[in-house]
Amino acid sequence: MLDEKTRYAADAGAQTLRTVGTPCLILDQDRMDRNVARLRERMERLGVQLRPHLKTAKSVDAARRVMTAPAGPATVSTLKEAEQFARAGVTDLTYAVGISPDKIDRVLALRASGVDLSVTLDTVEQARAVAEASRRAGDRIPALIEIDCDGHRSGVLPGDRALLVDIAQALEDGGSLRGVLTHAGASYGAIGDDAIRAAAEGERAAVVQAATLLREAGFDCPVVSAGSTPTAHFAETLDGVTEMRAGVFVFFDLVMAGIGVCAIDDIAVSVLATVIGHQPEKGWILVDAGWMAMSRDRGTAKQAVDQGYGLVCDVNGQPMDDLILSEANQEHGIITLRPGSTASLPDLPIGTRLRILPNHACATGAQHDSYHVVSGQGDRIEAVWPRFGGW
């Protein structure tokens, strides 16, 4: 009986885009490698370490091509990710979601196994819980204070010196302050290059301000961490920042293309689907990829170009004129022309293979348990990379 690694290799060798079962997740390795090289080179020019966020990939095989070294550094959004990547030898990790007390024992277990795992927090209550657990275990858990740079989600306001100091003091009573961290989540809704550049500068300025206030209060603050895919690609300076976290840049998606961070032909993931029916009087082509394959993410709905549930391409990944997945049931996808299009609905016989580019690579990836890897215009499945989910 084949072990899992051998089975995946054997399966890949027997498959092509025209024979593999659908729907399935396709990864263009050439595009992925190009995307990774692009951001690495940019961070090197700006003098900042890249700490890639692995929440998009959730795959050891993909992570090894994204990280700058086998041990990291890297960022995770779940402890399941931390545990999976730790087993693969990744030992420099930041858990970039606010820590809750019930998860601290898992953090300690990872640290006891040799993983330098830091946590994120933005309240005195969290800091006290981390400090107490650190004292109990005899292990000073390092933590980063999350900074709110744009009102998008969580974090301490960068100028709130009193709260920053209170959190740092509570943390240092057993734990360890590693630094500050922020994420310009509002940049995903920025319109135009100037708006993304402004978001990048706001992100940088906020996290540097918070670090400065903590240092002036007598606390070491070695790590100043920023990061989002849009700001990483548009920041003009990262003075005062020590590392940049970004995740979706590895694959990109239609949301990123819609705000101008990438081109359509930079998008490295797609869902392979098969035509299973027609409703000509309605202008519909039916495929076997519904929201269970694409996700329900409609992230382009508020952009200038609404891509429905995904942009339809031929089997080689070339976009087809104004063809989108406009509606999605659980297992049925409905392909139509984009509203207002003057193009003609193409004749796509039953059994035709299509690739659909996703709105949100993270959400679509989460619907699948593996990547079927191809190289550029190649038809052969070069490998099947397992991916995982869970928390």
TrEMBL record:
Top-rank taxon: Bacteria
rRNA-binding listed as a keyword: no
GO molecular-function term, one example from the UniProt record: D-serine ammonia-lyase activity
A GO BP annotation: D-serine catabolic process
Database matches in Pfam families: Ala_racemase_N, D-ser_dehydrat
D-serine dehydratase-like domain segment(s): 268-375
Signal peptide as annotated in the record: none
UniProt xrefs under Gene3D superfamilies: Alanine racemase (3.20.20.10), D-serine dehydratase-like domain (2.40.37.20)
Keywords (A to Z) from UniProt: Lyase
InterPro entries listed in its UniProt record: Ala_racemase_N (IPR001608), D-amino_acid_metab_enzyme (IPR051466), D-ser_dehydrat-like_dom (IPR026956), D-ser_dehydrat-like_sf (IPR042208), PLP-binding_barrel (IPR029066)
Family listed: Belongs to the DSD1 family.
Name used for this protein in its record: Threo-3-hydroxy-D-aspartate ammonia-lyase
Organism, scientific name: Sphingobium xenophagum
Organism taxonomic ancestry: Bacteria, Pseudomonadati, Pseudomonadota, Alphaproteobacteria, Sphingomonadales
